TrEMBL record, chain A:
A cellular component term, taken from the record's GO annotations: cytoplasmic side of plasma membrane
Gene3D superfamilies with a match to the protein in the record: P-loop containing nucleotide triphosphate hydrolases
Protein source organism: Psychrosphaera saromensis
GO molecular function, one term: ATP binding
A GO biological-process term: negative regulation of cell division
Protein name, as recorded: Cellulose synthase operon protein YhjQ
PANTHER family: ATPASE INVOLVED IN CHROMOSOME PARTITIONING, PARA_MIND FAMILY, SEPTUM SITE-DETERMINING PROTEIN MIND HOMOLOG, CHLOROPLASTIC-RELATED
Length: 251, 879
């Protein structure tokens, strides 16, 4: 099997509403800004990723919508101002969603195989829906790393604990929306950190109003203001992620 | 006639009277502007017109009021708005003064001086350039050449030769003989001059040569020159015929011999600081030994004990192998309650015999771990304390004691009163930075009573902590060393505590140390008795001898007065010869010490430290020397406040008397220059110079005993640490901590724009130490641009425990202390001591002044009245 030119990283919430779309978008921009070639795919039917990249609410076309309509995928590659390439999901009516299961099982890898990355270090991020809504889209396989995004809440902790047995080598974790003012959150954070291998914990992002403000301005916090705590945290995450991806490739 | 009248009339009528009137009006309004008294007005107008007439156009452009301002600026103490006769007198005195010192010529001279200064600056920068471009590279080259030869020196042949015993012995004997000969050989003055000059050059060259060998050679040179001086003093400078002079001269000589002895022993003690490395612990926790951690206390408030207890619990060590005990001799209920709440063992005993030593010994009978760690109740340990110290015990089964330095996070009285906290090395730095490290080489580390670990078995073998003397710690170590046990010193700040809060408390503490050390000297003299190696005897002897400094210091402070006032020659030799011997000795000693210990103590500062204590320490040391059994243990007070600046008259009195007689001595000296025999003038000058130096040191003492206020109970500790700040509305900022204390945090928000925090806002700060993350709700107390000062809202013990866990307990909490130190330059150090001296006199004057103002206001007013007649420096004007 020929060597892949890209690293496939899946970002998935352990449950719904933990903010993995925001994490994906910010991580993508941070990775892009530290010099990687970045491709982002939105696999969430809510089609929110595009909002982080400056795409208007009225634009509803996207990759999955196109695939259903049998249009070429190249039509749906967009670029934001940092030259991050992203593929929005596209707005699909409820009735059409079911038709997604008829797509070829490896359509993502097929698309990626068609791209010539010109041997640049490329990271492909996939914003993947949480476990609850798995049935809606294809299950991915063959990824290099999977980032399990959770919060420091009891429900997240229970999900973490329940799925820990099925975790593989390429599963890592990160906490989003950490609120230090709440005692329970710091306790759960300590609990989860102590239960898992520390090298598997990617990092922590605070519950930060700046992130919400950035989305309101149709962009990411990393892009909007590099000096905020959250931007710096995303940079740290990006650096750590890249070291995980490229150190394991063995030189 | 008519025509004359007409011409006159027409002249008058054609004259532009409007101008005259307007001119007069302007003069009038200008005069009004000046607001000066009616009496001065005509004079001012006259002076103005006169200067106009004399200087013409130069003055024309200035109006009268400006002219007046210029004049009044030259007479700053004359009140022009109200007339008084005394002001006229002041005016005249000032005029004379101005004509003498502020004439146009003087101004020009000053300009010339300024001009020359710029020339000097140019010259200076030229010298700097030469230094940087030529001398420094040359020096580097010499150094590299030197290190090359040093490396290649121990060749096979040489080392083989040195292995033969008789060659070694002969060589050593030969060298010692030569050294001794160099000390005792008498020189003609000119030869002594050449000899000193050559050694001086060598010492200067060695000073810029890195490496310890160079330091050792410098020490040898210093010993040589001081020994020559002492030998010369003994053999050829005593005046046997002059009764008083002879006795006083012997006194001075004794003080000098003492200083010489301490210098030589000090060199031996610190010749090669060991800089011990940390011994790693075995990887398996099961092999880590169990430790009892004792926190003895007597009367210290609970708030001082709490951080120590929490930090002791935070020490990273297997939980079942660390037992923290609070040993309360005060038998206080609140401390017992606190210990029970926090699961700490609390021990008391029926009596209070033998103070701290007895307290610890009692605890030894109630506990059974293999090791005992001891912390004074204000010494907050960091989490790595045991990991840094215990490795040695496992490696060396004969090791009985591991000591770590005492570090203080509050300023000691010297630092506070001189305002040099965190800027200059403090008083203890020399002992913990160098002397203990030097002792360690000779296996003679002293036990310092806190921040140390002892092995229980040897400790019980010597009968527990020593109770015979008031410095139980040093005596215990001595006993351990006598039994052949090893000691080691780990020079890592693994704990920090509170310094003594006032100079009187500091003096009390030092008196106790001195008394204790001299008790040991009498009761269990380290020079005699069995079990010690030669160098251990040297180290202990020097430690004890050190505390005799009181009397010699007083002798030096008064020695020149014997000539100036009593007119007796205590050094019976020509001034030039004295200089030829004493200057090289002093010079080499200071040069060597500034290189060897400049990092730990500023040159000349030891004199300040010793002078402050001299008077108070010499009586108890004498007492202890005569009757060693007397004297009780006094507890050093800590954690208090000083509410306002004050001058400690009680402590200052002996020094005020010393200053007075020194001033009297200078007065006598001046009189002797005027009326004494001509041959004596140079002697008088030397003695006056010495007295001035002494006065400078005494001024430093004045500066030190002027207590600056200390209102802060929770001391701020400088520490840089990234942290997170959450505003109430949910915005997250990154910040860098500047300092922390038990009650709050100072920080700088990292942001590209000003953050809108206001005083009174509630913010949450998040601190972390690796995986431990704690958040604290705080109130903003100070906000300026991005600098923020916040105070913790929650003052509960839990909150304090969390804070200590991530601040005081950090392994590097005290090691990262940034010290902005200048390079040790002897002349600038001398200057700084001079400045401190001047400062002392200024503060002395201030306090005398305010005392008189408060208690004798009439006297004060009279004084001010007479002072007002003195000429003053003119105010600066734009012109």
């Amino acid at each position: 099997m020929p060597e892949k030119d890209y690293k496939l990283v899946v970002v998935q919430g352990v449950k719904g509403g933990v903010g993995n779309t925001a994490v994906t978008a910010n991580l993508a921009v941070a990775l892009r800004k530290v010099g990687f070639n970045v491709l982002v795919f939105d696999f969430c039917k809510s089609n929110d990723l595009r909002l982080h990249f400056g795409m208007g609410l009225d634009r509803t076309d996207g990759l999955h919508k196109g695939l259903l309509n049998e249009e070429p995928w190249t039509n749906f590659a967009f670029e934001d101002r940092n030259r991050t390439t992203f593929f929005p999901f596209g707005h699909i009516e409820q009735v059409d969603i079911l038709r997604l299961i008829f797509l070829s099982p490896n359509y993502l890898t097929d698309i990626l195989d068609e791209i010539d990355f010109e041997s640049q270090e490329t990271i492909v991020l996939v914003d993947y829906p949480s476990y609850n809504s798995l049935k809606d889209t294809k299950c991915l396989s063959g990824y290099d790393l999977k980032i399990n995004v959770g919060t420091c809440e009891v429900s997240s902790y229970s999900k973490f604990s329940a799925s820990i047995k099925s975790f593989t080598e390429s599963d890592i974790f990160m906490f989003n929306r950490y609120n230090p003012e709440r005692k329970i959150e710091s306790d759960i954070r300590t609990l989860i950190s102590s239960e898992f291998d520390p090298s598997k914990v990617l990092g922590v992002i605070f519950e930060d109003e700046f992130i919400h403000q950035a989305l309101a301005q149709n962009t990411t916090i990393v892009d909007l203001n590099e000096y905020t705590k959250s931007s710096k945290d995303f940079y740290h995450l990006a650096m750590k992620l890249s070291s995980m991806l490229f150190a394991s490739s063995g030189e | 006639m008519n025509s004359i009248l007409r011409v006159t009339w027409s002249a008058i009528s054609n004259y532009p009277f409007e101008q005259l009137v307007s001119f007069l009006l302007r003069v009038r309004s200008e005069l009004k502007k000046t607001q000066c008294s009616l009496f001065y007005k005509p004079f001012i107008v006259c002076a103005w017109l006169l200067s106009w007439a004399l200087l013409g156009n130069k003055v024309k452009k200035y109006s009268l009021s400006v002219f007046f301002q210029q004049v009044s600026a030259k007479y700053p103490h004359v009140k022009f708005h109200r007339f008084s006769f005394t002001d006229v007198l002041r005016f005249l005195i000032q005029t004379v003064y101005l004509l003498l010192f502020f004439s146009e010529e003087q101004r020009k001279k000053r300009l010339i001086i300024q001009h020359n200064n710029t020339k000097i600056n140019v010259f200076k920068s030229f010298v700097k350039f030469i230094r940087k471009q030529i001398i420094e590279p040359g020096r580097q080259w010499v150094v590299s050449a030197f290190s090359f030869t040093a490396e290649s020196a121990p060749s096979e042949f040489k080392s083989k030769l040195l292995k033969i015993k008789w060659i070694r012995v002969t060589l050593t004997a030969l060298m010692l003989g030569l050294f001794f000969w160099a000390i005792v050989v008498p020189f003609e003055p000119i030869n002594q001059l050449i000899f000193s000059f050559i050694l001086w050059i060598i010492a200067l060259w060695l000073r810029s040569t890195p490496g310890r060998v160079a330091t050792l050679v410098m020490m040898l040179l210093s010993i040589l020159m001081s020994s020559r001086y002492i030998w010369w003093r003994i053999t050829s400078s005593l005046n046997i015929d002059d009764g008083i002079g002879f006795i006083l001269g012997l006194g001075l000589l004794a003080a000098e011999i003492y200083t010489w002895l301490v210098l030589v022993l000090g060199y031996m003690q610190t010749a090669w600081p060991l800089r011990r490395r940390i011994v790693q612990l075995p990887p398996n926790y099961d092999n880590w030994p169990s430790v009892d951690l004792f926190i003895p206390t007597y009367n210290e408030p609970l708030k001082v004990i709490i951080p120590t207890v929490f930090a002791a619990q935070n020490i990273d060590w297997p939980e079942d192998k660390l037992n923290v005990y609070v040993l309360d001799d005060g038998k206080r209920d609140n401390i017992k309650e606190f210990c029970e709440q926090n699961k700490i063992s609390y021990l008391t005993r029926p009596d209070n015999s033998f103070a701290k030593a007895g307290n610890l010994n009692h605890a030894l009978t109630k506990t059974d771990s293999e090791f005992v760690a001891i912390f004074d109740c204000d010494h907050v340990p960091v989490r790595s304390f045991l990991q840094m110290t215990m490795g040695g015990f496992i490696k060396n089964k004969n090791l009985a004691l591991v000591q770590t330095p005492h570090h203080f996070f509050s300023p000691d009285p010297f630092e506070r009163n001189l305002d040099v906290f965190n800027e200059e090395p403090n008083e203890g730095e020399l002992f913990y930075g160098q002397i203990q490290d030097g002792n360690d080489l000779w296996n003679a580390t002293f036990f310092c009573g806190s921040c140390a670990v002892l092995r229980r078995a040897p400790l019980e073998e010597v009968g527990g902590i020593a109770v015979e003397t008031v410095t139980e710690d040093a005596h215990t170590a001595l006993k351990l060393h006598r039994l052949g046990y090893d000691s080691s010193y780990v020079n890592l700040k693994q704990a920090a505590g509170l310094a003594t809060e006032s100079i009187s408390a500091h003096i009390g503490q030092r008196i106790r140390w001195a008394r204790g050390m001299l008790q040991i000297f009498r009761v269990d003299n380290p020079i005699f008795g069995k079990g010690l190696s030669f160098m251990q005897r040297v180290c202990y002897s020097n430690a004890m001898l050190h505390f005799f400094y009181g009397l010699p210091r007083l002798v030096f402070l008064t020695a020149p007065l014997t000539f100036l006032i009593l007119h007796s020659y205590i050094i019976y030799a020509p001034v030039e010869t004295i200089f030829l011997y004493v200057i090289p000795a002093i010079f080499h000693a200071n040069l060597t010490n500034s290189r060897h210990q400049g990092k730990y103590r500023n040159t000349f500062w030891a004199e300040l430290y010793e002078a402050v204590l001299a008077w108070y320490i010499f009586r108890p040391t004498l007492m202890a020397l005569i009757t060693p059994k007397k004297g009780k243990f006094n507890v050093t007070e800590k954690g208090g406040m000083i509410e306002k600046d004050y001058f400690d008259w009680g402590i200052g009195l002996p020094y005020l008397i010393l200053i007075a007689i020194n001033l009297l001595g200078i007065g006598f000296g001046v009189w002797r220059i005027g009326f004494g025999p001509e041959a004596e003038v140079s002697t008088v000058f030397m003695n006056i110079a010495w007295t001035v130096y002494n006065l400078m040191i005494l001024g430093g003492v004045m500066a030190i005993i002027t207590e600056s206020k200390q209102v802060r109970v929770a001391h701020r500790i400088e520490y840089k640490l990234p942290m997170t700040v959450c505003s109430k509305s949910g915005f997250i900022y990154e910040a860098i901590m500047n300092d922390y204390s038990e009650s709050g945090i100072g920080m700088e928000i990292q942001s590209d724009q000003h953050v809108q925090f206001k005083v009174g806002d509630t913010v949450t700060v998040v601190l972390r130490r690796n995986e431990i993350v704690h958040s604290f709700e705080t109130t903003v107390k100070f906000a300026s641009k991005n600098i923020l000062g916040v105070k913790f809202n929650d003052e509960s013990l839990d909150s304090l425990r969390m804070l200590i866990q991530i601040t005081f307990s950090r392994a590097d909490a005290w090691e990262v202390h940034p010290m902005k130190r200048d390079k040790e330059i002897i002349s600038s150090r001398l200057l700084s001591v001079l400045k401190i001296g001047v400062r002392g006199y200024v503060s002395l004057f201030t306090y005398v002044h305010s005392y008189i103002k408060e208690h004798y206001p009439q006297l004060h007013d009279v004084g001010l009245y007479f002072l007002s007649f003195l000429p003053k420096r003119p105010r600066l004007t734009n012109n």
